[in-house]
């Protein structure tokens, strides 16, 4: 097809030239290229007469247009030679001028044409044309030019015989240009021709010829191309032969080495000769080390070859032996050695494919640090970063090194950034490494943010599994399942634990996995099943039995040759067997746990992960404790207590694990033992440490929820020791932990004013950060960036806090005598063995008396509280029928009656408050612990007769520290400014129809007050007004969120867009504030699981700096709120004759509630909601 096209083009040019067309029609490069290409397509034997005829006429017309010039003479000769074939084979088609020419010159046309080649016989015509064409563009590498020169040289070769004196020159020139043409076009046909021509040139050139090295190298390169593109084994062998010869030349350089390496690789590939691969590796390495200009190419080729060989199991031994033989001494390696170092790392880090033992982490860290030191290009740095991150997080897990875990994270992030520019499809590997490193950091430090980041990165790794092989897929799924499992176990999150279990089973279903990964999967499965049993507490221990089976299979697979894997299996087996032994009361299983733990603790430390050793000690002690409880064995009990004490007291163990040990120690202790109270103190201190170490509010709140039952141990152990004051101190230290230390500034004396200012400023920032944290919505993923910001800022603030901490006097417990100077404080608590009231009376001889309350045991009190809360809701909700609400009021009355008989009456009688007082009424502060805070202690009363309200003025405090804080707020001066906030209607709540009447009543008694109402009552306006008013009255809806207390809010006009939350209020610091009256509903409603943390709006106002706060435990009707406010302010202002005397707030509220009770005694939910909190 192409011949026909070219022939037509040449014929057209001839026709146009004969018609007088422009000279360029035949003299242009394009015209010459078409004629040369047409002639060069000829293949002997045979004669292509049309092509010869057309091209002969073409050169004839070129000669006519160049008469008198050497080029014209040459083109005339070319025409004569080409038309000679026409004269011989078809004389009738020969143009007449040429017949004359042949006769005049006496030339026989047969001598100018060869029937064997079908072409002309004089190569010099074409040689001269080729030289002229090359001289026209001597440095051109344009494909068009290269192709034109090659075609003309092909014609010269076609015309010459091997005996022609110019034959060697023609072959040499053609070979050079064909190599250039192949390089420009990457055409394998040209490569084959170049290979053949260069081979001929080598045969023609003498050994000492200066041109021979060029053709030796070209011959080798073209053979490499043929071997690579056409899988030509013969070409590969020829390439090796030529390249070896070139590499031995005196002027051989790095390029010859790179070519020889390539030739060896192709020959090895096509012949299966592994020794050639080894020679190629050695050749590339030699060039990389010795040739600076070719180092990058040689390193790249070496890395590529090693990577390919490592993917073929049959070559691993050869590669391993090569690496061992060429690796330099540590500290002497260079960039040239980086591929070898990486291959050595890969061989060590992927042993499980061949069933070998896992690599030595310390050796891997050393190896990858060497890799990092020599990685210069981005690809090398990326790969080295990944390798080093993997080695470091594995070693960090073994040695419990937080520094190495953090370094592993940093390196994985570096690799991820580099990979984004190089090959985003490989992102999975770096996400996987990041998840693993963050998971180890959590294991080592207990850093909850590290665990959340591990979950996030693990999920991203799983999402990027497209293209991963089965092993990579199973590894990523298992790793993500593992971090998700640990997060779910820590947060007691059942749905996430089930998700982790499903992922683990999905990974386990992948067939053909290596033993090491299979062991990892089985261990993870065992751990998840064990924690599922702990979380869900099913009736039967089926999950534990499955966990034991999985862990036993893992241990069997590990065998004696893989101690580190075996330790992981024993770790899970211990936990599952211990719980199963306890569930089935099986001493044999428990004894086996002791044996397993002994195997771990007695192992070579170099094979033992420190975290597993810590857990082994804890599990052994727990198993011994369970055995002691079964048979009352003193030896087992002593051994268990010793082991638990060691874990609880070890600073290198995570605080969470230490806390578990401390609690287990308390559960095993005899409350009457002298050392038991010290154990309680240790547990309390560890509880505070765990809370303080939480970066986010939810982390700290989770710690408080998890160890809420510590109160029971504190009380029972403390009372068993006969030390009520110390018991009360420890009990106090278990409460209010989420705000611990933020009020430290008020303890400083005036001479420390500068430090106090610093501390208070820092406390403000911490409060604000907590407020931001608690108010934020969304799950782990949605809050990820915010969480990271909060964690980083809190870490910085806590570092500063620790610096200032040493300047603050050690907090002493409040002086109990002074604390009770204005009336007794009653801290009441329920335990499994009964209730107790700690009576703080101001008696210096006996500051604390303990009153047993046997009817207030946990089971009874808890049932009563649940009944009360249910009945209260039915009684206060208009949506229920009247009959239901009446029955509910009866249940509420019954609860108040029970509370009176079980606790309130005994307390009042013990305090000598047995009748209605004459003169000034005594005051009493209730401080209920835990879920007892849901009860209205001030309203306890019998079905008939006097109750608490008839004997004492009641106030509440969330802790003794809170009362101490409220008392430290300076008393009011006369003329305090008052603020009223009124918001009767908001979009998402029923209108408060009594607000206007309520506000009118308040303003009647406090006429100079500032009023913010309706559209003016925005979050920003209220917060600004709080800065300049010491008395605040809020008449609006409130919304308590018991699941996320920080988002409890006052329903102001803009609460949907900009809510004023509990977190905002608690984050304020308002100096010298006196009274906040929260007429809003449910401002004293507490979160059940965080009852001792004062997470309600009333407490938030006190924490903000108000000396007195009036709040509501549940919603009340508008008319009730109005009546209470009217009576309260009447008493507080002497009927409006003077400004509010805020220190009379408790008595004023007592009068208002008593008045309301007189109207609604049978409906306690109407009058018992309002409470006073504070001084």
Task: Give me the secondary-structure topology.
Blueprint: H1 2-18, H2 24-27, H3 29-40, H4 49-64, H5 70-89, H6 96-105, E1 113-114, E2 119-120, H7 123-136, H8 143-159, H9 167-185, H10 188-204, H11 212-230, H12 233-247, H13 254-271, H14 274-290, H15 295-310, H16 316-326, H17 338-349, H18 361-374, H19 378-399, H20 402-422, H21 427-445, H22 448-463, H23 470-491, H24 494-508, H25 515-536, H26 542-558, H27 563-584, H28 587-601, H29 610-631, H30 634-648, H31 655-668, H32 676-692, H33 697-706, H34 710-720, H35 724-733, H36 753-775, H37 784-805, H38 816-819, E3 825-831, E4 834-840, E5 848-853, H39 858-876, H40 882-910, E6 923-928, E7 953-956, H41 960-968, E8 978-983, H42 995-1005, E9 1010-1013, H43 1019-1026, E10 1031-1036, E11 1038-1039, E12 1049-1050, E13 1060-1061, H44 1062-1066, E14 1073-1078, H45 1097-1104, E15 1106-1112, H46 1118-1132, H47 1145-1160, H48 1164-1167, E16 1170-1174
Parallel strand pairs: 3-6, 6-7, 8-9, 8-10, 10-14, 14-15
Antiparallel strand pairs: 1-2, 3-4, 4-5, 11-12, 12-13, 15-16
Protein described:
This protein has 48 helices and 16 strands. The N and C termini lie far apart (107 Å). Strands 9-8-10-14-15-16 form a six-stranded mixed sheet, sandwiched between helices. Strands 5-4-3-6-7 form a five-stranded mixed sheet, sandwiched between helices. Strand 4 and strand 5 form a beta hairpin. Residues 741-748 have low confidence and may be disordered. It is elongated, with a radius of gyration of 47 Å. Helix 11 (212-230) packs antiparallel against helix 12 (233-247), helix 24 packs antiparallel against helix 25 (515-536) and helix 29 (610-631) packs parallel to helix 31 (655-668). It is 62% helix and 6% strand. 53% of the residues are buried. The protein has seven domains: 1-138 and 145-155, no CATH class; 361-493, Alpha Horseshoe (Serine Threonine Protein Phosphatase 5, Tetratricopeptide repeat), CATH 1.25.40; 514-647, Serine Threonine Protein Phosphatase 5, Tetratricopeptide repeat (Alpha Horseshoe); 663-734; 749-805, no CATH class; 816-941; 969-1174, Rossmann fold (3-Layer(aba) Sandwich). The protein is an alpha/beta fold and 1175 residues long.
């Amino acid at each position: 097809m192409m011949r026909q096209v070219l022939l037509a083009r040449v014929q057209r040019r001839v026709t146009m030239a004969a018609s007088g067309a422009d000279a360029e029609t035949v003299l242009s490069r394009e015209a010459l290229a078409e004629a040369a290409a047409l002639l060069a397509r000829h293949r002997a034997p045979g004669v292509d007469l049309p092509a010869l005829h057309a091209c002969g006429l073409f050169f004839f017309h070129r000669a006519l247009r160049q008469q008198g010039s050497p080029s014209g003479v040459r083109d005339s000769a070319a025409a004569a030679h080409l038309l000679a074939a026409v004269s011989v084979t078809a004389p009738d088609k020969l143009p007449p001028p040429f017949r004359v020419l042949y006769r005049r010159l006496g030339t026989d046309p047969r001598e100018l044409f060869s029937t064997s080649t079908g072409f002309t016989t004089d190569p010099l015509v074409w040689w001269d044309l080729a030289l002229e064409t090359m001289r026209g563009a001597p440095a051109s590498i344009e494909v068009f030019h290269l192709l034109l020169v090659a075609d003309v040289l092909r014609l010269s070769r076609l015309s010459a015989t091997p005996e022609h004196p110019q034959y060697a020159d023609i072959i040499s020139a053609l070979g050079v240009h064909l190599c250039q043409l192949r390089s420009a076009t990457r055409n394998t046909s040209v490569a084959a021709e170049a290979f053949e021509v260069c081979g001929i040139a080598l045969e023609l050139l003498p050994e000492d010829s200066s041109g021979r090295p060029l053709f030796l190298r070209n011959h080798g390169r073209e053979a490499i191309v043929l071997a690579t593109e056409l899988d030509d084994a013969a070409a590969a062998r020829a390439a090796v032969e030529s390249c070896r010869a070139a590499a031995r030349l005196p002027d051989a350089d790095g390029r010859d080495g790179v070519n020889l390496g390539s030739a060896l690789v192709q020959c090895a590939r096509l012949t299966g000769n592994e020794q050639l691969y080894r020679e190629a590796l050695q050749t590339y390495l030699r060039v990389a080390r010795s040739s600076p200009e070719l180092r990058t190419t040689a390193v790249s080729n070496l890395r590529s070859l090693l990577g390919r060989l490592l993917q073929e199991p049959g070559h691993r031994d050869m590669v391993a032996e090569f690496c061992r033989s060429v690796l330099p001494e540590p500290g002497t390696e260079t960039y040239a050695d980086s591929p070898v170092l990486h291959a050595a790392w890969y061989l060590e880090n992927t042993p499980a494919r061949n069933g070998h033992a896992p690599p030595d982490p310390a050796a891997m860290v050393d190896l990858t640090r060497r890799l990092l030191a020599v990685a210069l290009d981005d690809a090398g740095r990326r790969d080295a970063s990944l390798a080093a991150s993997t080695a470091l997080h594995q070693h960090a897990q073994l040695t419990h090194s937080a520094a190495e875990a953090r370094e592993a994270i940093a390196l994985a992030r570096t690799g991820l950034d580099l990979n984004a520019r190089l090959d985003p499809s490989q992102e999975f590997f770096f996400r996987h490494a990041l998840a693993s490193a963050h998971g180890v950091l959590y294991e080592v430090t207990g850093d909850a943010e590290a665990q959340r980041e591990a979950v996030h990165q693990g999920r991203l790794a799983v999402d990027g599994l497209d293209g991963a092989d089965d092993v990579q897929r199973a590894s990523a799924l298992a790793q993500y399942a593992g971090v998700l499992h640990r997060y779910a176990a820590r947060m007691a999150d059942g749905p996430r634990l089930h998700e982790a279990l499903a992922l683990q089973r999905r990974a386990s279903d992948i067939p053909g996995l290596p033993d090491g990964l299979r062991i990892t999967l089985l261990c993870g499965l065992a751990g998840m099943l064990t924690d599922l049993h702990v979380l869900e507490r099913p009736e039967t221990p089926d999950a534990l039995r499955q966990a034991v089976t999985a862990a036993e299979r893992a241990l069997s697979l590990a065998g004696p040759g893989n101690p580190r894997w075996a330790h992981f299996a024993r770790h899970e087996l211990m936990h599952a067997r211990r719980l199963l032994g306890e569930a089935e009361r099986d001493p044999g299983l428990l004894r086996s746990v002791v044996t397993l733990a002994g195997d771990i603790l007695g192992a070579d430390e170099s094979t033992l992960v420190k975290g597993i050793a810590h857990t082994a000690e804890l599990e052994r002690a727990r198993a011994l404790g369970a055995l002691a409880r079964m048979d009352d064995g003193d030896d087992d009990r002593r051994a268990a207590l010793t082991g638990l004490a060691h874990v609880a007291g070890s600073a290198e163990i995570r605080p969470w694990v230490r806390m578990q040990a401390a609690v287990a120690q308390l559960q095993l202790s005899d409350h009457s033992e002298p050392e038991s109270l010290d154990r309680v103190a240790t547990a309390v201190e560890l509880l505070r440490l765990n809370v303080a170490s939480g970066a986010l509010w939810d982390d700290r709140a989770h710690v408080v929820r998890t160890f809420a039952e510590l109160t029971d141990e504190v009380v029972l152990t403390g009372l068993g020791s006969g030390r009520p004051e110390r018991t009360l101190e420890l009990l106090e230290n278990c409460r209010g932990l989420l705000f611990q230390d933020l009020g430290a500034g008020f303890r400083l004396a005036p001479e420390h004013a500068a430090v106090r200012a610093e501390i208070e400023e820092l406390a403000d920032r911490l409060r604000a950060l907590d407020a931001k944290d608690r108010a934020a919505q969304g799950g782990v993923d949605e809050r990820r960036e915010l969480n990271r910001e909060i964690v980083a800022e809190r870490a910085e603030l806590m570092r500063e806090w620790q610096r200032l901490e040493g300047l603050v006097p050690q907090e002493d417990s409040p002086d109990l005598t002074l604390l009770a100077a204005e009336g007794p404080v009653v801290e009441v608590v329920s335990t499994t063995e009964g209730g107790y009231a700690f009576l703080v009376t101001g008696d210096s001889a006996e500051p604390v008396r303990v009153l047993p309350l046997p009817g207030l045991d946990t089971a009874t009190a808890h049932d009563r509280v649940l009944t009360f809360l249910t009945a209260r809701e039915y009684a206060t909700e208009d949506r229920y029928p009247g009959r239901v609400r009446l029955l509910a009021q009866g249940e509420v009355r019954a609860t108040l009656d029970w509370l009176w008989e079980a606790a309130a009456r005994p307390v009042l009688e013990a305090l000598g408050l047995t009748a209605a007082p004459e003169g000034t009424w005594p005051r009493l502060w209730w401080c209920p612990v835990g879920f007892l805070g849901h009860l209205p202690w001030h309203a306890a009363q019998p079905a008939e007769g006097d109750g608490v309200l008839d004997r004492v003025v009641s106030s509440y405090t969330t802790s003794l520290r809170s009362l101490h804080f409220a008392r430290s707020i300076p008393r009011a001066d006369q003329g305090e400014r008052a603020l009223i906030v009124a918001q009767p209607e908001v979009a998402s709540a029923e209108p408060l129809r009594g607000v206007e009447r309520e506000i009118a009543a308040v303003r009647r008694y406090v006429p100079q007050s500032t009023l913010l109402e309706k559209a003016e009552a925005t979050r920003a306006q209220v917060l600004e007004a709080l800065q300049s008013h010491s008395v605040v009255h809020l008449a609006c809806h409130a919304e308590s969120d018991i699941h996320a207390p920080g988002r409890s809010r006052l329903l102001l006009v803009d609460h949907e867009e900009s809510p004023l939350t509990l977190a905002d209020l608690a984050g304020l610091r308002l100096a010298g504030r006196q009274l906040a009256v929260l007429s809003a509903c449910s401002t004293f409603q507490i979160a059940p699981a965080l009852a001792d943390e004062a997470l309600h709006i009333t407490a938030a106002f006190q924490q903000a700096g108000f000396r007195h706060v009036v709040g509501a435990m549940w919603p009340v009707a508008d008319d009730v709120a109005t009546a209470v406010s009217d009576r309260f302010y009447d008493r507080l202002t002497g009927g409006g004759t003077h400004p509010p005397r805020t220190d009379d707030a408790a008595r004023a509220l007592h009068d208002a509630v008593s008045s309301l009770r007189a109207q609604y005694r049978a409906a306690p939910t109407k009058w018992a909601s309002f409470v006073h909190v504070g001084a």
